[in-house]
Predict the structure.
Amino acid sequence: MSHVLTNEEAIIANPAQYKWKALTGAILGYTFDALDFMVLALAIPLLVKTWGISLASAGLISTATIFGAALSGYIWGPLADKFGRKKTLIICLAWFGFFTFFCGFATNYVHLIIFRFIAGIGLGGEWVIGAALVTEFFPPEQRARATSAVQSGWAVGYALALGVNAYLVPTHGWQWLFFSGILALLASLYIAIFVPESPAWLKAKQNKAKGIETVSNTVVQVASWTDLLKGANLKTTLLAFGLCASCLVSYWGAGSWIPSYLSAERGLNIKAMSGYLMILNVGGFLGYYAYGYLADKLGRRANFIFGSLASAAIMLIWINLSSPTAILWMAGVFGFITYGYWGPLAAFVSEQFPTSVRGVGTSFAYASGRMMSALAPFAMGGIAAKYSLGIALGCVAVIYALGALFGFFMKETKDVIVVD
């Protein structure tokens, strides 16, 4: 009996023709993902003063956001494998855009924790789905650079948050940090209009309907969590989880408290702190492209082995500097090293999994890493309260270094083809 194609199955985009539009959509999505997370990091020092809450309590606001993102990550991956990358990405962006905007109306600590948890549910899927989308539009020789370009959206989003913090907050209040979250709807609209569904996902779906057993030399099956425990998938899943956990715990252990560190222990005001953080993100922006290029040329594993160890070293150096000028310029080096090596993460993790379980596998690894990182802001806040923010940030260096171990045992994927 012949198979009749549905309209969705019949229209499969040429990845070479639409890859740049897909990349633009993913960059926009990650830009507003970054904006959403960083407005909270910038708001925390202001909320500590305004509401009179402790550092540990303030850390719980970040923890609620990350915990919501981690929990939802287990949901969005299977949905992306079942309904497609495009639809789920649009929903994620609209979700956290609306709820971040609502955070600006919070009148107390409890309300903000609730709103941040709900916003986190939308945030949980953006990186995972965007990673799968870009991975499936680009050939292997360009994929690390493409996902690094997506990561550069983080620096842009951070810069937008710093702009709001420097120019709107002093006059209009911390609420405008959260109001800016509504801009995520721009990315949602762009993807809805200009970005087609993933060709690899549509081909896998089409072949399942036809009864064809393989796509890209991998078994085509209905994705489920149990598939991650079978055969080679188990080792892949555990290593991918370990790498994501190291990256995320170290990032949020440091990222949630760097603004407070510069404010409390270096005495910077809002505008001065924004200047330091801007230098950090310029370094990160350049680092994303540099690491992406090297990962395509030299391999993904070397990227994470070097990046993890170098991040541990540069963190220890940076937090022990006392000269304002040295801190300023080392911030750029810190951003280049510690943010840059994240660039190929989406490619490296998603390439580990076959098409049929790429969404669920990448989602599990990243969401589980986020679950581990959910306690990082709270734990670092506790350490900071008992000792100092410098000591807390020093602990992050050890976590950075662990990433090299996971990267060493993961398979090299720079030549893996994921699109037929």
Notes: The longest helix spans residues 15-51. Strands lie at 214-215, 218-219. The longest strand covers residues 214-215.
